[in-house]
Design goal:
The chain is built from five helices and ten strands; from the N terminus they run ααααββββββββββα. With 290 residues, it is α+β, with helices and mostly antiparallel strands. A five-stranded mixed β-sheet has the order 3-2-1-5-8. α3 runs antiparallel to α4. It is elongated, with a radius of gyration of 28 Å. This is cytochrome-c oxidase.
Length: 290
């Protein structure tokens, strides 16, 4: 066997082994819980929306990875197949156009974008569906650099109640989470968050819920979800809002309805009746401009 044939055979073996190793590595990592949930900071079933959001996230990455592999493979194949050979002179033969190829790379990406748009829009509409009244409505007011929570009278809350929060003070040590503003939610009850700002743009974010939405002065944004797993979850402002943005922390406690009603009774006993509305905003927006 000539040296050229031996070299070509060795290259094929190396390519085969490398391909099998990469495929094996991908298969092994695909079995891990972190990969199955796309390295997201939560578990399925934390709220009514987390499973849907995780599926959309993971499937989007799978589609992007498949497209990337095909694209990279075609690029590498073109580099190898059409490389300049030793002893070649002049320019390669030029092609002015290739109609089937041009139709292919125009229609296939368009089809892919439409498919991605369809699934994203379908899931987004389901997540944001507020066609039915929520069991609990909480008017969340972001302010530099804390939170106010207004529990509005409705199916579960029998009287307008409020709770004010104070700014966390980070000293480099562990945060005393018991002193953070805490939002209480009853498990398995649908919740509407009405998101408002008292001063500048903030952003309401509970990482475990996989939902974040901006709080814009003069405009009310909404998040609809049903917490389905009891527990305590960290929250924070996710929009740079000033000097102490990093200290704008809060917690969410998802509890049984009995414990939720006990907390509402405590607020009532403490005299926290009524709502803290936009009359406490630092920069109130005239009603006619809202």
């Amino acid at each position: 066997m000539s040296s050229q044939n031996r070299t070509g055979s060795r290259r094929k073996q190396i390519t085969t082994i490398t391909g099998l190793a990469l495929a094996g590595a991908l298969a092994l990592t695909g079995c891990s819980p972190e990969v199955e949930k796309g390295w997201l900071p939560t578990e399925r079933g934390t709220t009514s929306n987390t499973g849907l959001i995780m599926d959309l996230w993971v499937n989007s990455w799978i589609a992007a990875l498949v497209v990337g592999i095909i694209t990279w493979g075609l690029m590498i194949w073109c580099i190898v197949a059409y490389r300049r050979r030793k002893g070649t002179v002049g320019f390669p033969r030029q092609n002015s156009f290739n109609l089937p190829l041009e139709v292919f790379y125009l229609t296939v990406p368009l089809f892919m974008v439409l498919v991605f748009f369809y699934f994203t829009d379908r899931d987004q509409q389901q997540i944001d569906d507020r066609s039915k009244p929520a069991d609990v409505v909480v008017d969340v007011r972001g302010k530099q650099w804390a939170w106010d929570f207004n529990y509005k009278k409705g199916a579960v809350v029998t009287e307008d109640l409020h709770e004010t929060g104070v700014q966390a003070h980070l000293t480099g040590n562990n945060v005393d989470k018991e002193k953070l503003p805490t939002l209480y939610l009853p498990v398995n009850k649908s919740v509407d968050f009405e998101l408002n700002s008292r001063d500048v743009i903030h952003s309401f974010w509970v990482p475990a819920f996989l939902q974040k939405r901006d709080m814009i002065p003069g405009k009310t944004n909404y998040i609809r979800l049903t917490p389905t797993k009891e527990g305590t979850y960290d929250g924070k402002c996710a929009e740079l809002c000033g000097e102490y943005h990093s200290e704008m922390l809060f917690r969410v406690k998802v509890v049984s309805e009995t414990e939720f009603q006990a907390h509402m009774n405590q607020l009532r006993q403490d005299g926290n009746t009524g709502l803290l509305g936009d009359e406490y905003d630092r920069n109130p927006v005239p009603t006619e401009t809202k």
